[in-house]
Every structure is written in structure tokens, then in C-alpha cells.
Amino acid sequence: MPASRPASHTDVASRDTAQDILQLLTAEHREVEAMFQHYHRLAEAHGRGDERMLLASQICVALTLHAQVEEEILYPAARAALLRDEDLVDEAYVEHASAKSLVSQIKTMTSDQPLFDARVKVLGEYVDHHVREEENELFPKLRKAVLDLQDMGARMAERRKQLMAMPEPS
Asked: Which of 139, 40, 43 lies closest to 92 in space, CA to CA?
């Protein structure tokens, strides 16, 4: 069964590949932030469980794709370009591992189970922290580095298309 993906990610995947990788990743950050905000509004209003489940599933798929592209394309290039700042890349990998653990837990739950909303909320907090570090620390350093961010953006767009065509792993 193909991965259930958020409708908004169609926009990111089909954007002009002339955008550099940092622009594409930043756009994905905004889309995921919007999904988390919507989820929190639903949870606070004790919204329907099926609607929260669908949105949580879309968040998990979006984060899984985003993390995979960063780990395959951005982080190896960042590690090579920022030899003196390897800690930033190491921290990003650790943050991804924490987020992946929560994603894995959320995917096995239903919205009526205890701690479901709490796990989604904490995942959002992890992602928010991670995004701030990337956009305020890592991305500015990569803009100054000798990297072909345009080519990396094209590779990211292509890899995203490949991943979207694959069935979601169980």
C-alpha cells in the first residue's frame, strides 16, 4: 500500500527544482509546523479521534520522508563541508533518532489510547527544537560553505519522488 501522504507535500514535491535544498527543507519545516498546529487545535478541542489519527499519520509520514532525505543528502555533505562543526551534524542525527522513536510509537497506537496526544505533542516539541537549530545554526553555515545547494535541491526533489512512489515500510 503506498504511503499516505499529506496533501501539502504534493506542493513541495512538485516545486521548481531550481530551489536549493535549504529552501526546500525550510518549506517542509513550515508545512510540518502547520500540521502540528492543526493537530494541537484538534486535541485541545477534543476533536474527533479519526481526524487526529489521520493527521498524526500524515505528520509521521512527512517526518519520515524529511528525515530520510536529510540523512541521505544533506547531512553527509554538511559533515564533509563543516569539519570543524561536526557536533551540529551529530546532534541532528541524535535528534532524528529521538523523533523516529516517537514516530514508531505513534504509528502503533490509536487516538483513544493513553499518551497518544502526549506523544504527538512531544514529537512536535522535538521537531520544533530541531528545526530551530537547523535554520539558525546549520543552514547559515551551509550557505557559506562550498556546496552546490541547487544540485542538492534537485537531488532532494528526485529522491522524494522515488520515496513517495514506494510503499510505506511496516
From this structure: 139
Whole domain around residue 97: which residue ranges?
Answer: 8-165
CA distance readout (Å), 118 to 54, 61, 67:
16, 18, 21
- Tell whether 48 is covered by a domain: yes
Instruction: With respect to residue 68, please indicate whether it lies within any of the assigned structural domains.
Output: yes
Which among 125, 122, 142 is positioned nearest to 134, based on CA atoms? 142
pLDDT per residue as tens, the chain (170 positions): 334 444 444 444 444 447 899 999 999 999 999 999 999 999 988 778 889 999 999 999 999 999 999 999 999 999 999 877 789 999 999 999 999 999 999 999 999 999 999 999 999 999 999 999 999 999 999 999 989 999 999 999 999 999 999 887 54
The answer to whether residue 170 sits within a structural domain is no
CA–CA distance, 79 with 62 (Å, rounded to integer): 24
pTM equals 0.85
